[in-house]
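Exercise 7. Predict the structure of carbonic anhydrase from Halocatena salina.
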Amino acid sequence: MSDSISELLGRNEHHAREFENDRFEDVQDGQAPPFVTVCCSDSRVLQDELFENRTPGDVFTVGAIGNRVFEETATGLAVSGDVLYPLVHADTDTVVVIGHTGCGAVTATYKDIRDEIEEPAGIRHCIDLLKRRLADGVVALPEGLDESEAINRLVEYNVDQQIAILRESDDVPEDTDIVGVVYDFQDVYTDERGLVHVVNVDGVRDPEQIEAEHPELADRVQRLWTY
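Solution. The predicted structure, encoded as tokens:
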């Protein structure tokens, strides 16, 4: 057995000591988290840590390659049950879709759209799902971008597409607030690594409109690509 597993279990002991006594008392019999976050499955993006989530029951966290909110079902595409569960059963009223700079899933999808790449079946399935929503974005990209610039604009486009899916679904309650952000650890938006930048609110992606409608978010609204 790898020493890294022992190290991981040791970290859990530290966690358990920090959370002893009454940290879980309020959520023993259920949960009602105000937020569900949908983040890309990437080891560089600490989904709970980036919002300093240390309170059990506060944030319902969902991770998926490419921060996808949808999946293939027997009857076609549908909003993922991972995302729907807190909205339908736990009184959650806000979804935060979190993309991130340099996203590997978006990169792979971009490369596959331009020139098919080989991937194992499971990864191929994820790429094919993303391709359905990103293909038009690749065509619409401004000319003259290098690959990194193209990828980071598609990261925003992907967040927009995931929000569109949520808004189009009859399964998502109408009064759900949906916010799209991009987590930047590569100095793409600013030199303050780790900030999330708001790129979409309830389907609105124009920064000026978002700022006008949500002045409390004004200092965090920023996009690389308005289309």
